[in-house]
Amino acid sequence: MKNFIVRTITGIIFVAAIVASFLRPEAMVLLFSIVTGLTIWEFTGLVNERPGVTINRFISTVAGVYFFFAMTYYCSDIYGGTAKSVVFIPYLITIIYLLAAELYLKQADPINNWAYTMLTQMYIALPFSLLNVLAFTTAPEGIVVFNPMLPLSVFIFLWMNDTGAYCIGSLIGRHKLFPRISPKKSWEGSIGGAIVVLLVAYGLNILDNGTYTYLMDAGLKPCGMLSMEQWLGLGLVVVIFGTWGDLVESLFKRVLGIKDSGNILPGHGGMLDRFDSSLLAIPAAVVYLYTISLF
Questions:
Q1: Residue 183: φ, ψ to 5°
Q2: Which one in 89, 103, 143, 291 has a CA-CA gap of 20 to 30 Å to 221?
Q3: Per residue in 74-88, pLDDT tens?
């Protein structure tokens, strides 16, 4: 009972913090830069416990956080300035250093170190940084605006999918989705979670229409909204890739022989445990939205 209360309180604070962060672009950038750093630090600590693996936790973490800020600078007008692509040069120099440093460290297996070092950037830093692509869009008049609807909707879909999958799976779950990696997940739960997400996507479409109409009536020129079909498509993309993201982290923990990736969130484990689904869902959402914009 005590663990349930702790888990509930932590979950409420966790959701409230993420939702509140999207009220202001500065708050979103601050929160998810911290999340990026903590997640990379946690991941590098876990892989460094594997035999023959010794990667630079500090520089890998700093590089990932810097990349997040660089993407913010590139995608938004928060910091101002021109020639925005220049901001990536220090990051590229850091990556080159992390590769070249293995020449002098004389580690037992430098290939492992290279692989895990690059994985921290591709698996964690890149997905979180792509939140900036979702959050900052260009208005018809060429001004970059902060639009929290899309990045927040990804998290809402993930939360609703988890809730729906848990409730439906607990009631009628019979057929295992991926028993080798996650024996508790069922096809019935996954389908139930997807249905819940589609209903939420329908509601977000109505909200999106209302916001668009309000801004137009106020004499403003909002960015183009998504159609009903596009919202439903985004929901399905998040469900599919969010489930894969969850399974990928489950496989990672199973290989390491651990139950939780950490204990920073009481009752919920570590940062990877809480953001595993989003690490695949965010890039997939970006690809989906860019794809539909081409047609």
A1: -65, -15
A2: 291
A3: 998 766 555 678 999
